[in-house]
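DM from R.C. (forwarded with permission)

"hey, sorry to bug you on a friday — could you get me a structure for this? deadline for the figure draft is monday and I only need the backbone to look sensible"
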Amino acid sequence: MDVLKACLLLTLVGCGTPGYLIEQGMGQLKLQWRGEKNEKLLANPNVAEDVKFKIRLIGDAKQFFAYHFGIKVGGIYSKTTQLDGKAVSWLVIASRPTQVEAHEFQFPFVGGFPYIGFFDKADAEDFRRDMEEDGFVTHLRPVYAYSTLGLLEDRILSSFFHFKDVELVELIFHELFHVAFFAKDDVELNENLAQWFANALLDEYFKDAGMLAAYRRKQALEKELEKKLVALAHLLREEFAKMRPYLTDEAANAHARRFAAEILVPVVQEACRAGGWSGDDCPDRVEKWNQARLAALLTYEEEQDFIAALVQRHGWDTRGFLIALKTYHAEWKKNGKGDFSTFLREKALP
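My reply, with the result:
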């Protein structure tokens, strides 16, 4: 599963222009309006059985999550929306050519995000071109799920059916965690917490299922590739640093292309051979890699290590960890300064 799967807040945020807010708000409303009750779909003989199975699986995963943590999730995933395309939305990630660092987009109410999202792919591509005209390097990627943090009754989207069973359950746990806990202006922490909880809950949900063992093997290969790509992203950063102060945008882009062709892509190809990945599952084309895509990987790296160390230090299970997070978060809101991630580091992992 894509480690960068995002919690988009398209209905809640603006891009500095009323037009963006209106367009994304309308996109969200369309998803709500077009939703059909699951009971109706399950009773419809024209709906494919594999789709019905996934709808039931999502419902079961939702009930498990709610019972496990003793929380109410309301009517989330009680309706299904058929999308026009394979993805529900599209993210634009941008970086300056001479850096490997995601540009942060600032939004009211929820703070900064290292990406900006659009329901319409054409709008995303237009915005991407605008960013490139302003001198940025960009990366465009599809999103198959997102959360409105419980402010709306999120729909099952037809894009969910893109995932295999274990991945689908992990996806549902991930998105529901955003409803259970969310720290304002801390996108990296929020995403990594959701991924940690979703991954941990799989063991409790599937128990000894053989399909989970197969998924863990695939997951291990993906994690190993991710570590190698993160190391390469750091390496490119270091090479850029050595080339300053004479590094121009043109020179940086040319160097990044050579770096991708000669160093990065061979690493990806080897991983694809080991995992048996091909086609869209294997990002082995040079043009798919640039500073923005590598920056997106680095955005989440530090928080992943922090969460693992935090859990190991305190020995929390999933319930205990969520209780601790809420306790620390309440304390931070009352007395804390700066962002919650920093506060958590100082209090829980001194």
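R.C.: lifesaver. The mean pLDDT is 87.
me: no worries. Residues 95 and 292 are 5 Å apart (CA to CA).
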